[in-house]
Amino acid sequence: MTTISPRAVDSARKPDGLRAPVSLRRTVRLSLVHARFNLLETIRVPIAVIGSLVFPALALLFFVVPQRAVADDPLFATQAIISLAVFAVMSNGLFGFGISIAENREKPWDPYLRTLPAPGIVRVAGLVLATGTLGLVAIVPLVVIGALLTAAEASIGHIVLGFVMLAVSGLPSMFLGMAIGLSFPSKAAIAVVQVAMFALAFGGGLFLPPVMFPGWLDTVTRFLPTRQARELVIWAVQGGALEWWAPVGAIVSAGVLLALVLLLLRRDQGRRFR
User: Fold this and answer.
1) pLDDT (tens digit, 9 = 90+) per residue, 68-82?
2) 48, 90, 176, 219: most buried by Cβ count inside 10 Å?
3) Residues whose CB is less than 8 angstroms from the CB of residue 258 and which lie 6 or more positions away in sequence, other chains included
4) What distance in Å separates the CA atoms of residue 28 and residue 126, rounded to the nearest whole number?
């Protein structure tokens, strides 16, 4: 029979900031375990996986393929597919984190997880790995349909680099979704996510290319993580010059939003689990 010492119980109940430091190796291992069980939890509801896989492909079939002026032009078709890929990763991060975290905070299982002796970064990394993996897998049907039904073109090396850039530049959207989920109750989180998704998608040039923006809007939208993600992935897939503000903005956005998520986790810990 397994017994738990009073010292272990006391350590488990301490807030994050009062727990003993956890080694990097242990943090990575706990993050992978957290990601694995998050993936298993999602896979056990197949429609959730199917929805993520089908949505980007359907958007391509309905909005790009019928527009032959776009679909038959290699440059426009490739950029349209990239915009849909960035939109899919962004919406996956905002909805996947923003709503699910807000709902989970209202269920008994989440308070139990918060008592476990693991730092907040473990939960963040586990969620990012699980949701990010599903988001990237959902891009595969989009690429296949784009290759078969449009004139989009790119080498295998550029496509692989595009996936890497998509994973990196999608982090700010995931962190933003987490921040919304940790800040609002579930009903309010739905509305906030919808507004944020529309603003980020339009401002990021995912509905209309930024060349159609007026000068002031083009300048303002360069501060949005979705605009930075679009430019990074286009550079990775199509090559050409990369404006300095895209990689710098992506790094700053990811760092600031990650710090905000950890701060909100710490605040939530202090309010609800002291």
Assistant:
1) 888 889 988 998 999
2) 90
3) 124, 171, 175
4) 9
